[in-house]
């Protein structure tokens, strides 16, 4: 190895991939100082060296969401990439490719009543063990629009007052899939299930890899705070949602065809822009299982 990845070292890092292998160049271009980085020099359709895998893990931990351009992947290659990070998750409600439940479909066109993920959320936080991350591959892009916003929940937590941090310490929130998913995919022919997941999670969680604390409530799934009066909990949640929407915590990604975004669902929220009607935007998401938040 001739260099290592350093947050402040600038975008170009060169290292020897593995003993006996030729030198490879991976580039890491940060979108903002605190969230988002585009990785270059990696072809995800090929088997990745151990070194490349390490750099991807490190870049994800450091930047919360990483992006790849010009990736042409088969469903099998997309899923193999996901499996490098853990077992694959099957979405409890969303449509998937026929016979391949791990390949979730993301699609909006002129006939769509809505797009996926239009409000701020973390994916499926209503599950007891929400996904660690999601890998979205967009294959068809509108000429303009359809960006995705990502927000850093470590930064949102760090920016709270010490009094608010003390108040939230040990607080538990209910996350409920029922009001989100019931009827949501009916217009595109997906039948409702008898019930949807629901779980209780700490309002502030500790990231299992970085050990850092982050804010873990989201407007999509968090329905209330437990152990405090309803009106008080609702007011606190409203404050936290407003607080986390500060653009200082965010990056905004502009897609091109065959771009990939891989976000860490434990410490980042995201929101998709539905601003491109009547154009089409579509792709697939592979999601990696996660652990119970603590
Ligand atoms: O389409 C997007 O950019 C994101 C949609 C979404 O929320 C997701 O795939 O989890
Ligand atoms: Fe999402």
UniProtKB/TrEMBL annotation:
Domain spans labelled TauD/TfdA-like: 28-287
Keywords: Dioxygenase, Iron, Metal-binding, Oxidoreductase
Family: Belongs to the TfdA dioxygenase family.
Taxonomic path: Bacteria, Pseudomonadati, Pseudomonadota, Alphaproteobacteria, Hyphomicrobiales
Protein name, as recorded: TauD/TfdA family dioxygenase
Example of a GO MF term: dioxygenase activity
Domain of life of the source: Bacteria
Pfam family name, one: TauD
